[in-house]
Structures are given as C-alpha cells and as structure tokens.
Amino acid sequence: MDKQQEAPIGFPGIARSLIAAVIGGIAFKLLHLPIPWLLGPMFAVLIGSNTFKGRFIWPGQFRNAGMIIVGYTIGLAMTASALKEMSYQLPLMLLMTLLLLLWCAGIAYPVSRLAEIDYKTSLLGSIPGGLTQVLVLAEETDGVNLTVVTVTQVIRLILIITCVPLLVTSPLFGQAHAGSGAGSPLSAISAGWDSGLLPNMLVYALVTVGCAILGNRIKFPTAFLLGPAIGTAILQWTGFPGPALPSFVLNAAQLMIGVHVGLMLKPDRLTHKVRTISLAVGSGLLLILGAWGLSVLLTKLQPISGATGLLSLAPGGMDQMGIIAHEIHADLPMVAGYQLFRTFFIFFAVPPLLKLMFRYHGKSIKRRETQ
C-alpha cells in the first residue's frame, strides 16, 4: 500500500488538495482553456500529489457529492420527450457500442505485443468502461496485471477529458448548436434558480442523495451518478419542476471530480514506465480517433452536431462527457443516452463475454501444450 493510501484523511491533506485545485481552476480559467474547473484541478493535483507524496488527500465522499450534482443536471435534461426520442436510437446505440468495442479489441492486440504483456491485460486496459467496473473485472481474472490495467485506464480517461474538450470547442467542430439535434441550455428546460422553488430544491436534494445511497447498496453501476439522474428524471415527470443550478455549484462539482481523477494516477507503481505510458497514450489516442470516426458516421445517420456525436461516443466517463455537453450546450439527453447505454452494456454484457472468451482461450492453450 502506498503512502497516499496510508495517510489519514485529515484537514491538512484535504486543504492542500483544495488549494491546489482552486489554483489550477483559476489558472485554466485565465488561460481560457476548456472545462477549467475540471481539467485545472485535475492537473494541479496530479502534479502536486506526485511531487509531494502522501500529502494530498481527497475523501471519496467529495467525489460522490460531485457525481450527485452532475447526475441531477443530467436528470433535468432527461425529459419524457427527450427519452422518447432516445428510444428510437437504440439500434444505433447498440451498433455504435459494438463497433467501438471491436475497435478497442483490435487496438489491444498490437499493444500487447509491443508492451510484452498478455492480451487479457491489454484488452482490459482498452475497454472503455467505468474504471471501477473494469478494475473489479481485472481483479477477478487470473493472470491480469492490475497495475497496468489501472494506469492504462486512467491515462485513457485523462486523454479523453483533455483532448475531447479541445476538439469539440475547436473551429474543426464549429458551433455545438449546428444541426437540428443540438440541445438547449438547461436554464431553458428547467426552472430558474431565483424562481421561488426552494421547497422543490430540498425535495430534489433528498431524492438525489437517497437514490445515490440506494444505488450504491444494490451495486448499481456508477450509482452516485445514475441514481440521482434517474431519481431526478422520474420526479420531474410527475410535474414537480427542478431548478437549474447556479454556475458556481456546477464548477464546484467539476472540481470535486477533477481532484479525484488527478489523485488516481500513480506512476511510481509502474515497471517499464516509459514504454507502458507511451503505449497507453498511443492506444488512448487511437481510441479517440476511432470514436471520432464513428461520430462522423453518426452525424450522417442522425441530424446532430459533430460535437454531440463525439461526446456521445467518446470512451470516457458519462460524468465528464455530461459536464462538457452542458458547458457547450450540446444535446445533453443524446450524450447522456449513448453514454448510459454503453455503461450498462459494458457493465452487464461485456464481463460474461470476456470471461467466456478468456476461459476458451485458456483451454485452447492447455490443449496445445498437451499435444
């Protein structure tokens, strides 16, 4: 166990993380970089925690609180009409998810050969699922290098939430509102902050926190995000309006998630650091390239903007993609829908398929050895 894990969760460590995060957010804001309150804290804490070992602490409850806020924001966008439209997208969702997974499987083979690691480790490092779900599967699979899987997944996540905002806010993609599928700002589809809905806000707070806790207890995938999103959507359908959150609350949620991501990367655990990190970066960039290609295909099949297409298919976390979609006013229901579908597909369908494939592969090796 490393020093970060052994260090007690005390005020000094939390204060250091918070100060570094705020400095990083302000710096990114002044530099006019995209998603400053997510990326700024992430990089500031990443640098600080790897420079001063064991001195940066961030309780998981803070990250969970940020996830609940983002889940509430996504739930507001999941109106009945939006979900009805998304139901027509199910065949395309399945097709795009399968194509992305096949692309990942193809990338994993040359990476395994170049890195001199087994294909199982390389494949689990490339799967674009939630970090928690993939690590649980890696722990349950014999012969997998958990450190390589963790580092590869974290580097992929960092690349996604660094490169995708730069892409979707670049002139290459134009305005997110281009195309009839562009979404509206959340302020246009929910009640305003100052519209006298404080009682409603208290009800939503109880519902979102309750759904997050319940989802976590029943082992729901990404419970602190999906639980509040589903609870908010259902409550909204009953005619109980939910107020839009002010920007400082959304910025705080991004900061809480960004610090958590920054603390996940621990390069000192790696052997062959340069080679492993280089291949992880290369495979991550290829994943982004594949998602970009599929997003171009999706925009040909659906009247959506390029930014919405890329955010829908980007192999990152739904919380980060939801934040970016909200910031640039992309079609948030579509982005959340595609990301949600892939999350469930990878959580429920991919593990048994991979276990079956690994079992068959193991039996094939044993048969060849006995011949």
Draw up the topology in text.
Elements: H1 3-6, H2 11-30, H3 36-51, H4 60-77, H5 80-87, H6 90-115, H7 119-126, H8 131-139, H9 146-168, H10 186-189, H11 198-217, H12 223-237, H13 247-264, H14 273-301, H15 306-313, H16 318-328, H17 332-348, H18 350-370
Helix pairs in contact: 2-3, 3-13, 4-11, 4-12, 4-13, 4-16, 6-7, 6-14, 6-17, 7-9, 8-9, 9-14, 11-12, 14-15, 15-16, 15-17, 16-17
Could you explain how this protein is built, in words?
The protein is built from 18 helices and no strands. It has 371 residues and is mainly α.
Order of helices and strands: HHHHHHHHHHHHHHHHHH
Strand content: under 5%
- Which spans have pLDDT < 50 for at least 5 consecutive residues? 1-8, 176-193
Query: How many beta strands in the DSSP annotation?
Result: 0
- Largest β sheet strand count, sense and barrel closure: none
Give descriptors for this structure:
single chain, 371 residues, 18 helices, disordered N terminus
In brief:
The protein is mainly alpha-helical. It contains 18 helices and no strands.
